[in-house]
Structure formats: C-alpha cells, structure tokens
Amino acid sequence: MFAALRKLVGAEERRAAPRVETTGWFARIDRREFPIANISASGFLVSPYQGDLIKHQKFYLTLVIPADASVPDSKPVEFKVDARVARVGPFGLGAYFLDAHPNVRMAIEVYLQQKLAAQPA
Fold first, then answer.
1. What CATH code is carried by the domain that includes residue 107?
2. Is the N or C terminus of the chain more exposed, i.e. has fewer CB atoms within 10 Å?
C-alpha cells in the first residue's frame, strides 16, 4: 500500500507516512473549524490556519470526516484526537497524531485506500 502512496505523492516525499489530499475533512481546534488539506496515517496539514498553536505544542482536536454521499442517511463522523504541532507557517499547521484510537487510524486508512483506488494506474 505505501509503495502505491509513494507513487501518488512522489518519490521525494520525506515524511514519516505519505499524505493524500482530503475533501470536506476538517479539524475543530479551540472551538474553531479549519479545513484539513491533506492527511496520512501519522499526521495532517490544516490549511489555512490562523490560530495560537506553536511548534511542539500538544493539543486536542476533533477530526471530522464528512458523510459518505454513496450511503443513504450517512452522517459525518467525529473523532477526538491528541496531536502535536510539527510546524506552523504561511502554508498552515502541520501536526502528527499522538496515540490515535484504532478507529481513527482505520478511517484514515480506508480513506487512503479509496483515494488510491480512484487514481489512474
């Protein structure tokens, strides 16, 4: 799976885990909502980000995954997650998960697999 992800994001990717773009995902941090630009099994990028978090700071967020349009009556899914800021800048806020619940990791992995399956070979 990760070999295919490397193809998707480029061989020069140097992150702990390759990231893919998201659509409709967001992070609720300090009662404010920020779009998640991309995500991996180990972390995410919130962009744009205008807040008070600083590099290395541990924080608590709610990860919100949109409803699945292909499933009637589905609703957004929310997970409470601990994270640590890796970097903050004009690009947004990059963070990594701290001990994410297995359901969170599974939801991210399913999303990554679906995203890869939709990519042309």
1. 2.40.10.220
2. C
